[in-house]
Design goal:
This protein has 2 helices and 5 strands, in the order βββαββα. By secondary structure, the protein is an alpha+beta fold.
Amino acid sequence: MVSLDKSGLPAGLAAAGAPTCWKAAYAGSGSADVWVCWYRESANAFEAVQRVAAAAQTVKFQEGQYFVMVKWNGAQKTDLTALVRGIQKALKKS
């Protein structure tokens, strides 16, 4: 991880549910930007996953009250899979 900062909403994410977002930047064999947005209600996180449009080199998912979006460039599939699993595991503990 290169950086982690409080962030505005990622592009395409509606402000419904008043989420609080953070953005992390990762570098290695490629790069990835990760947005994690916390909602008071898990239903709002679910709705966010449903409403954000699909895009190339982007994965989005919900983990409880969190909406997560990962955008990558040039990352190996194994590295990307490890990153997503690590995020899921960390959010399950919170």
